[in-house]
Amino acid sequence: MEANGPKEEDNRRQVIPGPTNPMVTPLLSDLYQFSMAYAYWKAGKNNERAVFDLYFRKNPFGGEYTIFAGLEECIRFIANFKFKEEEIAFIQASLPKTCEDGFYDYLRGIDCSDVEVYAVSEGSVVFPKVVQLLETSFLNLINYASLVTTNAARHRSVAGKSKILLEFGLRRAQGPDGGIGASKYSYLGGFDATSNVEAGRLFGIPVRGTHSHAFVSSFMSPDEIMEKSLQTRDGSSTCEDFVSLRSHVLRGIFGETNQSELAAFTSYALAFPNNFLALVDTYDVMRSGIPNFCAVALALNDLGYKAIGIRLDSGDLAYLSCESRKFFRTIEKEFGVPDFGKMGITASNDLNEETLDALNKQGHEVDSFGIGTYLVTCYAQAALGCVFKLVEINNQPRIKLSEDVSKVSIPCKKRCYRLYGKEGYPLVDIMTGENEPPPKVAERILCRHPFNESKRAYVVPQRVEELLKCFWPGSPDKPREELPPLKMIRNRCSNQLEQMRPDHVRRLNPTPYKVSVSAKLYDFIHFLWLNEAPVGELQ
Amino acid sequence: MEANGPKEEDNRRQVIPGPTNPMVTPLLSDLYQFSMAYAYWKAGKNNERAVFDLYFRKNPFGGEYTIFAGLEECIRFIANFKFKEEEIAFIQASLPKTCEDGFYDYLRGIDCSDVEVYAVSEGSVVFPKVVQLLETSFLNLINYASLVTTNAARHRSVAGKSKILLEFGLRRAQGPDGGIGASKYSYLGGFDATSNVEAGRLFGIPVRGTHSHAFVSSFMSPDEIMEKSLQTRDGSSTCEDFVSLRSHVLRGIFGETNQSELAAFTSYALAFPNNFLALVDTYDVMRSGIPNFCAVALALNDLGYKAIGIRLDSGDLAYLSCESRKFFRTIEKEFGVPDFGKMGITASNDLNEETLDALNKQGHEVDSFGIGTYLVTCYAQAALGCVFKLVEINNQPRIKLSEDVSKVSIPCKKRCYRLYGKEGYPLVDIMTGENEPPPKVAERILCRHPFNESKRAYVVPQRVEELLKCFWPGSPDKPREELPPLKMIRNRCSNQLEQMRPDHVRRLNPTPYKVSVSAKLYDFIHFLWLNEAPVGELQ
Q1: Which of A30, A429, B301, B507 has the smallest count of CB within 10 Å of its CB?
Q2: B287 secondary structure, DSSP code
Q3: Which helix (H) or strand (E) holds A74?
Q4: Per-domain residue ranges for chain B?
């Protein structure tokens, strides 16, 4: 923002249509950004060109990869960037009275038509230090988006491809938007559906849900059900007393089950004969929930409907899912109902990566997992430490030093490439200065650790992918990348993860993926470092 | 929502003016709520009266208290509750096609005029199991709000009353709204200001900020500064070369300091002569940052201005703050500048409860703390497990059983009281049935653990406070509680915490505060439990 003066000659500001987050305004910003903008303006530095890097230093969740997400929201933000009068009034009230009026006129005039954004495509696998964005402060939009997407991808990876993953986190999310963002980015990271209706409406994510314990306990007995008739699925006839249709099944075989539960299931099946999915653990799964479910599912079957399945929300999910499966298979055999043994089993209840992994190890019969709190709040690590550093101003490189080497920034406007090996796996990412020639296929290139002199390797890439693409504003010779629909971003994420060498993305002790700099950039970093180091240390 | 039919005779729906969260719509809900609403409607149960409890089971952060927050947003939500046509269309698209049209007409007609909300006042200290709200699903709005408020209160408690606490979390918050909510509820929990400008505008929270490392590294040398003049504070004269005013101080005493840092400080002081607060750790705190700051602060002093202070964002904050303090005191003495030794010192850099505590133990000279990630994401525990349980329907009590006793719900519509002892401390909270006589001052009352027979105590309260008040909709004989301004809620929070017996709120091994039920409610819970327990266990 600081380097962005008003432009009279053209106006490339374009409102990108589509769902924008109503919480995101130019004021969603730290006050210091406005203080600094004023100081820059006062010092006449507002027309200088600055280059910023946005990156993170450490992969989350003890892993060795991160999925980059949030780019579309950033681009929408800058595309729509314009101060409203009431916002300028509030900035004026927040800054000292000594600030000159000219500054507020300057704010009135600015937009982001002069800002350039180069970024990795959303949904890409990325690694620490690789720059994802240049210019302005998208930290809020990127940090949580990338974190929850990565979290979702990790859950997908443990659950396996064949399972259905449902995001159930709205109630525990960090605020309403936390809930909506969580749904969007969980889908991006590989989830199949959400329970959050608003997220479904905004982003076209499939929406799923069943009923709660409260629904079950709100019934007393089947006598309460007034409307008992149900048409057969083909519409050919009507069963006048669906409630009693299979009640003999219960009396004959299973003994007495909870009657308020049976009433709730019956009532739900009458409302959703094609979508009967019952929560079976309100009272006792094996003694009441499963027999009640089976009686109602068999009654539906008599009328030509097929029940969807059950949900388990407590207890030993491995054991209960296996026992339920046995039960369903017995029903299939005893009652001659084809495929009843394949009845869907959904599990929920504070699931996370570890519990999925434990379930896999124990063996289970769960088909779908509903995951909430641990997914959406990123409980295992609630924040990603993205930072935003100045790396160049007016073509002068800038470096941020630190006693902690991992916090030293890599100066200059850069290009980034991913180099692929013979097997098709990415081997290493390399950053170069903006004007260096790009790495070439089949040509040896030296890849150096940015700070550790001894870490270096020659690589002969079989394929070279340029990572940073122009997302804003674009020009005839540098066309703007399209913002793909969410589903395509989701595919990119899944494809990129599959393309990785498995040891980089495994859950336990993954191998770090290397991010390097070119020999020229290495030399330049260390030349600058010497020149900028604190005077005291040079003495 | 389920129990809420359309009302023709009156319309108590009232739009409450003030900032509402644009993300919160009736669709910000799990699909199962609509599925269940349909099943209830289909079963003709939509006009029944249901009572729900919203509560949590365990205090967060290893503590023994929680601050209740989010109520105002809930009340605004129900006051404005009304489906839009496009929302109904989306629900229709999400539910099975077999659902009858009459249901959507029903949705068109409903609002929340028939819902009653009884709650503890926002900003109150609350404990597990005490019911905070009756009816509808406010979990999203309550969970994070209460969590981050409690987190803020805990940080305040460790930092002590005299320190200034600044919330700096926007960039790491879980989405834009997570950032705004974090600022609001951190303020509620005892923070003094936020860096988030939008939160300042929406809620009137004081906004604070200084500059970043990028500002410092964007300058090369003092020669860059074009406009070097600064008026004296009283306007009586103008210093033509502020930049050189005290440069001899540096040359004479401190040796060479980083020139781009000096340029940045000078420039910032020219822009904000009354609000000069400098980030001093870009290069080297003691060799460059502090001397540069002092030179500029002394120059400001020459012209009648008073610098605000410094910010430390890395390194050993205890050591650096003490060394800086010594430096400032020496300057006060050497240059005869009164109060220079009291210069403000702000610290930031991944602070949390533990680091504040460690700083206190080491001894430090920090006046203000800027706290971000750990505060706003509630890193130590990223979710509060609020639940929402049906406890009564059509005057029939409902109980949710579980093999885990802590998960058994307490049936019936209830009243809650806080009983105070002689010293003025709260002794115990007690829940009673709705129609039981309230506890009386100076009268002995038996308080029982809801599930453990042997845990019981007689209490003679010196003061009795009814906790659940009517927040919606109110009536002539039961007037609605006002929604107080944020500042008053903040005061309530601080007063309530001060009123607690210290061992309940201390950081290490706090004493659990007891929540009890009346003898009558105890007997009733256990009577119901026997009757509702799974059949198998009764055999």
Answers
A1: B507
A2: I
A3: helix A71-79
A4: 49-68+115-140+388-538, 151-376
Is the CB of A89 inside 8 Å of chain B's CB atoms?
Answer: no
Rounded distance between C-alpha atoms, residue B519 and residue B500, angstroms: 25
Contact A328, A341 (CB under 8 A): yes
CA distance B290 to A232: 83
**Domain A151-376, CATH 3.20.20.70 — does that match?**
yes
Residue to substitute from B23, B224, B276, B387, interface A, most A β-carbons within 10 A: B23
Closest-CA residue in chain A for B27? A198
State the angle between helix axes of A290-302 and A259-271 in degrees (0 to 180), rounded to the nearest 10.
30
Chain A hits for B215, CB-CB cut-off 8 Å, are 36, 39-40
CA distances from A72 to A17, A181, A185 (A): 12, 12, 12
Do A272 and B220 lie within an 8 Å CB cutoff?
Answer: no
In eight-state DSSP terms, residue A175 is S
Alpha carbon of A350: minimum distance to chain B alpha carbons (Å):
10
CA-to-CA distance for A374 and A356, rounded, in angstroms?
Answer: 12
CATH number of A31-150+381-538: 3.20.140.10
CA distances from A212 to A298, B36, B37 (A): 22, 8, 11
Instruction: Inform me whether the C-beta atom of residue A537 falls under 8 Å from chain B C-beta atoms.
Output: yes
Tell me the C-alpha distance between B511 and A356, whole Å.
35
B49-68+115-140+388-538 domain in CATH 3.40.190.290?
no
Which tokens hold the place of B205?
């929270």
What residue has token string 């209840």? A349
Read off the pLDDT of residues B20-65 as tens digits, 9 standing for 90 and up: 566 677 777 778 778 888 888 888 888 788 888 888 888 899 899 8
Helix axes B290-302, B259-271, angle to 10 degrees: 40
Comparing CB atoms, the residue among A29, A178, A398 nearest residue B175 is A178
Phi, psi of B437 (to 5 degrees): -65, 145
H/E run at residue A433: strand A426-433
d(CA A266, CA A296): 6
Question: For residue B209, what is the nearest residue in chain A, using CA coordinates?
Answer: A32
Given CB atoms, is B25 within the 8 Å cutoff of chain A? yes
Higher-confidence residue of A533 and B39: namely B39
Cβ contacts of B229 within 8 Å, gap of 6 or more? B238, B239, B240, B241, B242
Contact B209 A31 (CB under 8 A): yes
Report ipTM for this prediction.
Answer: 0.81
Single-letter residue type at A422: K
Q: CA-CA distance, A76 to A21, in Å (whole number)?
A: 9
Q: Does B89 touch chain A (CB under 8 A)?
A: no
Q: Which tens digit of pLDDT belongs to each residue from A469-524?
A: 988 888 888 888 988 999 999 999 999 999 999 999 998 899 999 999 999 999 99
**Rounded to whole angstroms, what are the CA distances from A504 to A56, A155, A423?**
18, 16, 15
Q: Which two tokens mark A247?
A: 């009640």
Dihedral class, residue B100 (left if φ above 0, else alpha if ψ from -120 to 50, else beta): beta
